[in-house]
# Entry
Amino acid sequence: MQWFAEQWALGLPWQIFYCIAIPATVILLIQTILLIFGIGGEDDIDVPDADLPDADGISEYGIMGFFSLKSIVAFFCVFGWSGVVFMNALGSVPIAFLLAFLLGVGAMVGVTKVIRASAKLQQSGTLNMKLLIGESGTIYIPIPEDKTKRGKVTVQLAERQVECDAVSESGAMTANTPVRVTDIIAGNVLVVERIG
# Structure
């Protein structure tokens, strides 16, 4: 505690950096502990999918996409502690503030990029039905000749087997008939044709 009292007595710049660094570190530790227990995994001002950067790295919301509780806490934590280090090493207030600010912004950008990268790794589990067009499958429940009535077909898409309602434009089809998906109509009903 004597070391801290000596640092605190050095003057206002040290006091400012410590008043920023210590609370930010406490908040960061609380966030980390909560995250370990599965609380607060979503970001408070998390950006929707539309806000994820495109190929050029540009976000629809621009610079506002960088502001979230996690990135702001990271900024203040890095800004405060690096300010203390630079004040001790250099003794120059303007240089210490500038370098601390730049490192804080770097931490903010880094945290934002990690949050966005992890958001891209999440899978919704929802199947994009359009991916089934052109895939082959097998009739599971016979398709009647009447197009208003449906049968069922199983289609293999990557490592997932999908069972969907199906109709045929080429007449009735019996079970175990190999088919190819040609279209999708309202209600996610597959239109299939016989293979061969």
The first helix runs from residue 2 to 8. Residues 43-61 have pLDDT under 50 and may be disordered.
